[in-house]
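lol ok so funny story. i was supposed to be doing the assay writeup but got distracted and ended up predicting the structure for this chain instead. priorities right. anyway since i did it might as well share w the group, maybe its usefull for someone
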Amino acid sequence: MVRTRFAPSPTGYLHVGGLRTALFSFLYARQQQGSFLFRLEDTDRNRLVEGAEEDLIAMLKWAGITPDEGPGVGGDYGPYKQSERLEIYARHAQILLDKGHAYPCFCSAERLEQVKTEQKAQGLISRYDGHCRNLPRDAGLTRIESGEPYVIRMKIPENETILMEDLIRDKVAINSEQIDDQVLIKTDRFPTYHMAVVVDDHLMRITHVIRGEEWLPSFPKHLLLYRYFGWEPPQFAHLPLILNTDRSKLSKRQGSVSVEDFRKEGYLSQTMVNFIALLGWNPGDAQELFSMEQLIERFSFERVGKSGSVFDREKLNWMNQQYIKKLSPEELWDALAPYIQTTPFAGESPDRLKKVCQIAQNSLTQLKDIQNSLSLFFEDRGSTLSDPVLIEFLKKEESRVVLKAFLEQTETLETLEDSNFAEVMKQIQKITGIKGKNLWLPMRYAITQVEQGPDLHLMVGVYGKNKCRKMVEYALGL
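and the output, tada:
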């Protein structure tokens, strides 16, 4: 059975790169009718961020990525938090020590820094110099028993070419001389990522490890650990980087990078899943909008590229707009309600708010844009027109003729609705002889005070007779 996992560290909010890793792992497991695990790699105690664990779980749930095993879910291979598995790592570290594949290192931080400085001055690659590598076993045990602080390092073989196979990059070779004697167990007896990830993936029977290409340099260390333990390694897939538009690695310096930020800005979960799926994976045709079910059916590692993918915010906005347009009235209201509650218009009639939401639906790029639409409908905009282009147009004599005719035609009307607005405009055209944009633009600019926006008929239906007349009177007074 295929078993994949997403194993983030709770050191911050979920990065969009992390979401992609989780998504691809989830898609493949579901496609192969396997299992998808969620595991917390929380052994770096100095970098833990309060609330990060809860956010990781919440954002996966929001995206529709549901683990079969993990914290709060259960499963046969727990615990699923590394901080609860310390005895397991200690036991396996002892196995490596007994086999001679690892050794205790007593070098102080000061000595390691000095070595690093000297290597840098000589133009050498910074790496551990093997000072404790050949320390006699008895001497090492004596120092440990005396209470001297130490770490456990793995022994990297000398001058060996390590061949690695990857589902995306095929075969990759690296010489062991480029690899450091990695620390496996720290002085606080917590494991490093490299030790814990191999032990956990094996014991949890992970068949496919999907992760970012930033872990490629660590790939040979992990393969060596599988060899040292006598285990068959899983298959690996290292995903390409996600890049800014300038081809630099995606970072906070150029905008949001956390899934939580995008959710707050008003991107739908369907949008984020669809957009993230296309960062690296190519469906092979022109289709751009995919449901989760379609992604599960069509995903393959063969169509994941090796080169980085640009995070195109314009494409994301377009895609979000398409998904917002597809929402039912009920789904739209549920999606917009939290954003409406943060505006000054939250106390307006729910029926009017829902009507405005439906009118604004096709023009929304992000859910938070609803505030601008609500302002358009509910603010007293009588003295807010400042666009010089609109003001100049409204001052034209032909525009004033249309606006005056509107006041005359609506004066005796009992109500003005979207249903009878067209007939009013037809009468104005007949009386004035003005038609086309010279007939409609003065009305749009006067009533909406924006050049482009929701359908004018629908806005008139919400505004009603009195507000429409008030807006036209203001325009005539410019």
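The radius of gyration is 32 Å. The chain has a mean pLDDT of 93.
back to the writeup now i swear
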